[in-house]
Amino acid sequence: MLFKSRYLCFGSKTWYLNASLLLPFEELKSLDLSYNYLGGWIAPEEPNLLSSRLSKLEVLDLGGNFLDHSILSILGTIPSLRHLVLKNSNLSGTLHMNGGFSNLIELDISENAIDAVAIVEGGFSNLKELDISYNAVDVAAIAEGLCNLVKLEELDLSNNGITGRLPTCWRNMTSLRIMNLVDNEFTDNVASSSHTSLTSLEFLSISGNHFNIPSSLGPLANHSRLKVLLLDDTELIVDTKVASSIPRFQLKVFSKSNSPSKGFKVTSLGFLNHQYDLRMMDLSSNDIPGPFPTWLLENNTKLEMLIMRNNSFTTLEVPSMTRFNVPVMDISNNDIRGGLTTEFCANFPNLHHLNLISQQIGREYSI
């Protein structure tokens, strides 16, 4: 059952919901009060009345309102809550999560102005999904609390400007499947960081940070479940000691594109030699020289999107006896010269989008 507020709001005035109005809805499981100019709600006089009457409430969305920290003490009296959304709710400063929330498995506090999160010992013991993106937290402000979340499966800390190294205790979050650290200021060596122990990862984005990443991706070689790896605007460091083991992962999505202003370059694509299941790949703005790497297409016959613009490819030759199923290809802004042969066209029968802007392709063959 879904109950959504129908109160009218004029201008930007906030209002407070009298929580006693919810008490008759004893079968209520999901409540959406998002984007209602809500400033909070007034709890019933009896402290345990909400928990006794709303004992089946599992999903609560208060996103897009104008809340203060007092709402947390009220919500903590509803132990049945499993999914709580406080996204873009004008919360700021240190968020004290005291008491309750023992059954919560998802917490979204993104897009606020939170600079620290205080989690009491034993709190959120069942939390599996945590989104703190687009705030202003730092490692010191969240490390201790996160270290106790051993059941956490999804963590989003993107766009926080976090500096420093990953806390070593994050090695204990061995159930983590999704980690998004994009656009922070982490400075760490992946070979010795907590990443090496998180072998349950399926999605890893460390784009836009300052990680020291060996070009062989050797520190991630044992991450057999890894399917999505995003390394945009990061620098791959040439290994002084090349890893001898073949990576156990088979990626579906790999992105290592760069903003031209960063000046990062990929000198070798050898780390992709053992990938055979890629569906999407972006290697834009890496200044990769030489002929177009046809072997990437030959190895990954399920590719759906190939983006390799702003490199330094000079020739475009495709084996005449091979058919590729790629529907989207962008190889614009390279140095490819010569004609686009009829064999090329025949070998891409499912191509829907082809970008060849700023090439020296012969006019008589262009499509």
Short description:
Mean pLDDT is 86; it is low at 1-10 and 363-367. This protein has 367 residues and is mainly β. It has a 15-stranded parallel β-sheet, with no helix packed on it. Strands 2-4 form a two-stranded parallel ribbon.
Overall description:
There is one protein chain. With 367 residues, the protein is mainly beta. It contains five helices and 27 strands. It has a domain at 277-367. Helix content is 8%, strand content 23%. The strands form seven sheets. A 15-stranded parallel β-sheet has the order 1-3-5-6-8-10-11-13-15-17-19-20-22-24-26, with no helix packed on it. A two-stranded parallel sheet has the order 2-4. The model is unreliable at 1-10 and 363-367 (pLDDT under 50). Pfam families: LRR_1. InterPro entries: Leu-rich_rpt (IPR001611), LRR_dom_sf (IPR032675), RLP_Defense_Trigger (IPR051502). Belongs to the RLP family. This is Leucine-rich repeat-containing N-terminal plant-type domain-containing protein.
